[in-house]
Amino acid sequence: MELAELEIFRAVAREQSITRAAKTLERVQSNVTTRVKQLEESLGVALFQRDSKKMTLTPEGQRLLGYAEQLLTLAEEARQSMRAGTPSGKLRIGTMESSGATLLPKPLARYHAAWPDVELDVTTGTTQGLVDAVLGYRLDCAVVAHPGTASASRVAIGELGEGLEGTFLKTEELVLVLPATHPKVRRPEDVTLRRLTAFTRGCTYRRCAEEWLEQAGAEIRRTLSVVEMPSYHAMLAHVAAGSAVAIVPRSLLALHLDAAEFQTVPVRPVHTFLVKRSGFTTSAYEAFLRELRHV
């Protein structure tokens, strides 16, 4: 089993297409097809279910993908370690959408200016999705929100996932955003809207909003519905329309042109961390961490 074969296999698994994988890898389609077949023959199993539209992983292929992610990530880490002190190669960064908008732009700009040869790959997602990707070797590090209520120095990163290490970055103030026409809110019992617009499950901010609203009692726990949205712009559009409430960091709301037109209620502070797998380090990662610490 060669790393080149695993890289081809991973590309086909991600793209679900020989044609798209070949384009991504800048290889001819026949070469990609041959290498996948050779890998299947050497392992004695079918890795893909093939039909006219796409290629999907078999259970055996799904298991191999986990190993492939680990092996390819470790190989890249080994390559970078040969150039200790000089950031190189690729750095795969995950971030919550809010941090991508408020925390990362300046550090990433400085990083690119200092180390233009490093390939930065930035992905957004929920805290749980990002943690899973880090532990699954699909990301090198991620900016996530810790759900704990203790001080930043006392929360346990292990609560997010076993095998993680974290560096504290900042504390965000979460606010519940309501339409300006909503009656004044001072506590959960005052919220009359029963629709919360938020990201999918796994989002720490959504969890905080649900826990805060449910303090109002059993009635709101029974009637509260969550409308899942792909972005904060979509969430705030629902709030502006008077149909829902939303939970956002105050720093993100400050970027919204119509922020003054909303009613906001403080919910709680939430700590933001940069997490990585225990023991993982490269020069590219260390340089990125230094930039974040200069925010």
From TrEMBL:
The protein's UniProt keywords, in alphabetical order, are: DNA-binding, Transcription, Transcription regulation
Organism equals Cupriavidus lacunae
**Domain HTH lysR-type stretches:** 1-58
Under Gene3D superfamilies, the record lists:
3.40.190.290, Winged helix-like DNA-binding domain superfamily/Winged helix DNA-binding domain
InterPro entries noted in UniProt = LysR_HTH_N (IPR000847), LysR_subst-bd (IPR005119), WH-like_DNA-bd_sf (IPR036388), WH_DNA-bd_sf (IPR036390)
Q: Which family does it belong to?
A: Belongs to the LysR transcriptional regulatory family.
* SUPFAM superfamilies assigned to the protein according to its UniProt record, in alphabetical order: Periplasmic binding protein-like II, Winged helix' DNA-binding domain
> Under what name is this protein listed?
LysR family transcriptional regulator
Q: Give GO MF terms, alphabetically.
A: DNA-binding transcription factor activity; transcription cis-regulatory region binding
